[in-house]
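Note to self: keep these together.
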Amino acid sequence: MRLSRRLSPHAGHSARRLFRRLDKVAGDLNILLIAIAVGLATLDMTFLLTQKIVERLPRVTRVVHVEAPAQPVIAASQLR
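Structure:
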């Protein structure tokens, strides 16, 4: 009990100080959350815009590289 009195001699002042610190932290956190929300909204709008642009583009023929079939091996007896 004696130790707690020595750590906080002004209990009322420390509560006010604590609330001020919490208010400052909450204000800083709000700024961070707003910045994240704006970034996510921008990303979402960019995705929607590119999706609309891609829908309006003409269809593209898909080109796939396929190896030519192997040449048949001709035996020496078939050459005559």
